[in-house]
Amino acid sequence: MVVNPREAPTPTIAGDVAPLAQGTAGAPLRQSNLWRDAWGRYVRNRAAVAAGAAFVLLLLFCVIWPFVSPYDGNKLDFSLKNEGPSLSHPFGTDNFGRDMMTRTAEGGRVSIGIGFAATIAILLAGVAYGAISGFVGGRLDNAMMRVLDTLYGLPYLPFAIIILAIFGDANFWTMVVALSVVSWFTTARIVRGQIITLKENDYVRAARAVGARWYRILGRHLLPNTLGVLIIAIFLELPGVILGEAFLSFIGLGIGAPDASWGQMANDGRTAYRTSPHIIAVPSIAIATLILSANFIADGLRDALDPRTRET
Amino acid sequence: MALLEVNNLKTHFFTREGVVRAVDGISFEVESGKTLGIVGESGCGKSVTALSIMGLIPKPPAKIVDGSVLFDGRDLTKLPEKQLEDVRGREIAMIFQDPMTSLNPTLTIGTQITETIRRHYDVPKRQARKKAVELLEEVQIPRAADRLDDYPHRFSGGMRQRVMIAIALSCDPKLLIADEPTTALDVTVQAAVLDLLDDLRQAHEMAMILITHDMGVVAESADDIAVMYGGQIVEQASVNDLFDRPEHPYTEALLGALPQIEGEGIRAGRLTAIPGRPPDLKNPPPACRFAPRCKYANANDTCTTVMPELREIHKDHWVRTAHPACERAGAQVPVQA
Prior knowledge:
The structure holds 2 protein chains of 2 kinds. By secondary structure, chain A is mainly α. Chain A has a single domain, classed as MetI-like fold. Chain A has helices spanning 11-25, 34-43, 46-68, 100-136, 138-152, 156-167, 172-180, 185-199, 202-209, 214-250, 262-270, 278-305. Chain A is elongated. The relative contact order of chain A is 0.15. Residues 1-29 of chain A have low confidence and may be disordered. Chain B is of the alpha/beta class. Chain B has a domain at 1-91 and 176-185 and 206-260 and 271-337: Rossmann fold (3-Layer(aba) Sandwich), CATH 3.40.50.300. Helices cover 30% and strands 23% of the residues of chain B. Chain B has helices spanning 46-54, 81-87, 109-120, 125-138, 144-147, 157-169, 187-203, 215-221, 239-244, 249-256, 325-328; strands at residues 4-15, 18-30, 35-39, 62-71, 74-75, 92-95, 175-179, 207-212, 224-229, 232-238, 311-314, 317-319. In chain B, the strands form 2 sheets. Chain B has an 8-stranded mixed sheet, with helices on both faces. In chain B, strands 2-1-4-5 form a 4-stranded antiparallel sheet. The two termini of chain B are 41 Å apart. Mean pLDDT of chain B is 83; it is low at 331-337. At the A-B interface, helix 9 and helix 10 of A face helix 2, helix 3 and helix 6 of B.
C-alpha cells in the first residue's frame, strides 16, 4: 500500500493499515490475481455497480418475461388501444392494444441480441485486423493503417442504410452485418496499439529466445494481455450499436413488423406522442437505461482493470 | 573445432540518420565448457552481439551485413528462421538483464517453464511439470513444487532471475548467453546468482558467454575475456593475462576505474575516470575508435587516421591499439603512468 506523504493520512487510516500489514506478513496469503483484484476495485465503484445491476436486471427481464407474461406481445386487442399504465398492463398498451411490457421484453431480446452479435463481430474483425497489423509491423502495418484511415471516413449510418438497401431485407443477421461492417475500425486501432506496445516487452523477446513460434507469442503472450482492453471495448461499442439499431428501426429500416425492437416501438409511439406518451417513453427509457449502464460499466471496468488505480 | 565461432561479424542498424555500426567486425571463439566474458561500456555492442548470435536482432532496422556465426558447424546467420527457432532455447539459451520484465506477468512460472520444455521435447504435461520442479530445485528455489503455480509478481528479483535461469536450462543447451544477468540485482544477490550460474554451467557442461560491464563479474567466472569498444573487440586474452598485463589503454583505464579493497598496491587516490564519451557509431572515422579518449594518442599519430589492426601481441593475447603497454616503456613514457 503506497501512502502518498502529501495526502497526510488521518490517524484512523493509519490504524486501519497496521493490522492489514500484519495480516499480509502472516503465512498463507490468498493468491491475488488480476481478475480478483479488478473485481475488488470494480465493486468499490458505486456507479459502476448500480449500472451493472441495472444492466443485468434489464437482460434478465428481456430473457425471462416473455415466458412468464400472460400476454402475447404480438396479439392485437383493439378494445385496449393506447391504454396508460395499469395493474394488468404495467407499461400500458400500444396503438394496437398490445401489452407494452411483454413487447418491451421481446423487443429488448432483438435489440440486445443484435447489439451483442454486432459487438462480437466488431471485436472479431477488429482483433484480427489490429493484431496482424501490429504484430507484423513495418510496411504491412503502414499499409493496413492507411486503408483504415480511408475507411474511417465512411459515415456510419448512411453506410449501414446502404448495406441494408443492398440486402433488401432487414432480418437479424443483415442488421448485424450492417451495424458492424463500418464500426470495427476503432477496435482495430486499439488492438494494434496494444500489440505494438506489448510486443516490445522483454518477455516477448525472452519467449523468442526459447524458440517460441509466432502464433505462440501472439496467442499466449500478446492477445491475453489485450483482454482487459477488449472487455472495455465491448461495453464501449455496445451503446453505439444499439443506438444504431434503434435508429434504423425507428426510420423503418430495421426488423420488420410484427416483430418488435425498441427502435420500432418508439416509431409506433411517434404518431401518438401527445395523447399516449408512454408508447414512445417506454422503449426510449429502455434504450437510455441500456446505453447509460453500458457506459458506466465501461468506465468502471477501465478503472478496475488498470492496475495503476490501486486503492490507497 | 570450437563450439561457437564468430567470424568478422558485422551488425549494422540502418536508421534514418545513417548507418549505425553497432557491431563492426568482431571475431571470437567459445570452446565447449568454457566461459567467455564480453566486457564493455553501454552501447559498445555487447548485447547486439548476443542478439546477433541468437538471430534476435530487430530487423529492420538491424541487419547482419557480413560475417558468420558458426555453431556446431552450422552458420546461424544463414539458417532459415524455422530452423533457428529450433536452435533457440534448445541448443543456445539466453538470460536477459532485467528479470522483473522478462517473465510474462499473466502466466504462472510453471506454465512458462513447461512451455519451453514442451516446445522442444514431445513430452506429456505431467512429465514437463516434474522436470520444471527439478529445475526450480536446481536453481535453489525453496518449496519448488508449491511455487510452480505462482505468478511472477510473487517472486523477488533474484528469484525471478533464478526462474529465468531454470527456463534457460530447461532443454540442456550447449551454450548459454547471459546478457548482464546480474546488473538489475543488488550486490549480495549478484554474487549468489553468479555462483549458481557457474555451478550450473559446470554441472551441465555448457559453454557460456557472459556479457557484462562489470570487470569484477568476469574476473570471477570467465576463462577468457574480450573487451569491446565502439563495436569492436579491442583486447582479448585469458582472464589472468588480461588482469595481470592489460595492453590496451582502454582496458587499463577500465581496470583503473575499478575499486580495490585488498591486495598489493592499494590505491590511495581517487578512482580514475575515462574522459570523454563513447564514440558515435554512425559513420565513425577510419581511425582507432578509442583515439579521442586515449591519453597516449596525439594528433600526429597514425592511429588517428588509420584503424589499427587486431594483432597478437603475446601468445593468445590480442590487442587493437597503436600504443600497447609493452611497447610504451622506452622513449615516450607518459607522465601519468
